[in-house]
Design a protein that fits this description.
single chain, Leucine-rich repeat, LRR (right-handed beta-alpha superhelix), two-stranded parallel sheet, about 10% helix, alpha/beta, globular, 5 helices, 20-stranded mixed sheet
Amino acid sequence: MKSVMQYIVAWLFILPCILLDKGALSIACEGLQSCDCRRERDWLQDGSDSYGVIECEGDMDMTSFNFSWYSKKTDLQEIIFTNTSIRSIGKNVFNGMKQIKTLKIQNQTIKIHADAFAPLGDNLEHVSLININISRDWKLDYLKHLENLETLYLDKNGQYPEHFPKHVFRNISLTSLKHLSLRYCKIAIMTREGLEGLPNLEVLDLSHNYLPTVPDAIIQLRKLRKLNLSFNKRLIYVHDYAFKPLKYLEEIDISNTDLSTISEFAFYGLENSLTNLHLHHALLQDGHFHSMKELKRLKFIDISYNRIVEIHNTSFEGFVALDELDISGQSDIKDGVPYKLGFIDSVFKGVERKLKILHIRDLGMDSSLPLGALKSLQRLETLDASMNKFTEIYEEFFYGIKAKNIYLTDMEISSISNFAFENLRPGVSIYFDRNNVTNISFVLDTPICLFKKLSLTGNPITCECDVIEIAATNRVSDIVGTCADNFYRGENIKTIHEMDIAKVNCDTKGYKKITHCSYINSAACTLINLYLCVTYTMFSMFYLFL
């Protein structure tokens, strides 16, 4: 038995470690009513550094409010005001606080003096002014000359229908600003000059507003790389040349809108820049995609959950760089009749040797995958056909599919044929999570090391001797799931063979364990083939010159 003194000594060693945990310590700030002081890790620096934070909330007496005691604390970098009783911030509040990098004021009505942030100007990089009722005139003089400011959040300021005025940023010299957020500002109209004065802006978030179309104001942002217009429910149309001068624009998000029409020349000017396009959860019906065919660098398209029920054999011709495509959840009702997306065998014409990731979730498929279309995808790595209506995986279910990762989750699959996987290549990972699978004996009839990973999380698996054999022989490099029968309920399938009761119930002595399965990925295969090709060519040339 350890003595009480030994425990006390141990705690004396442990307690400083707990207190030094950068996120663990939070105490009342000396001289600052209703404020807590704490430390946080800088995860951008791999957690190696930490910094001080002052967070104030609730009733505050500004007559005695004084930051001067903290002015020499060089590791203090962030100040937060949340729902305080402060109604104004004067020009002397932050005197001496030049070390501050982040300032957040949120969820309160407040007046900010024109020179209030001047003492913070040298190092201030991030400002959040969220829900503080600044939209009466959008006068932002207190941001003037914050030459190192990189991110600015002005979310939840506005009254519907908010008319975002001219020249809000033109005279405040935010020359270093890279990221601007105006989410939830209830903006219905944005003037053409509304975003003047932001020459180096790269990210603009206008999501969760009421914009009816792509605002002309964005054409002022010649260095813009990412634009978010999602959740603008009034947005129904993208007009010609909407993004024309934005030659660096890489990503556009117009998802979760009522978008139904994209003009043929909508993306004109983005041929050599746009890589990611998010158009999911909208009202698109046209399956031709003419407006996107000239986008030579477009790698990712998400058009899931629209009303596209016809995709043609020319729909994806011209998509020369497409890596990932999501066409999940398409449905429509015409004349009272529900329609789902169908597949013709040549639907992926044009991307057969390019497409690597395909999502065809929630398309109402109930008997089979569209094998005729899928077998044409020569470089397919990941296929996600989850949330469909499959109940059985029958023999040759995956015939012709070349994907190494296959997702069939969140359905009612209860039966899996022993011959379903005959045409798959070794090293495949299949995810059957959240189905109704009880029997996994099919694994014993598949080639050794066929499955690199088999995930069965959330299935009511009955763990009999076949499951013990699968685990003991290590036929699957990584098998994930738990038993649901009364005998082994909750036990991990991967390690169940190590239990004494399993060794008693099943004859595990005869199980021969496969100690290691080796797989060569497609990139390695390509390099090997290239090496063999070069070697063969050199040998042939040498032979000819003999």
